[in-house]
Amino acid sequence: MLVERILPTALKRLRTVQADAALTAAAKLLSNTHISLVVVCDLGGVMVGILTKTDVVRQIADCAEGRCTAAVSDVMTRDVIFCRPNDTLQDVLSTMKDRAFVHIPVVDQMCKPVGVINARDAFQALLGDAEDDVSLLRGYIMGIGYQ
Question: What pTM was computed for the model?
Answer without folding.
Answer: 0.83
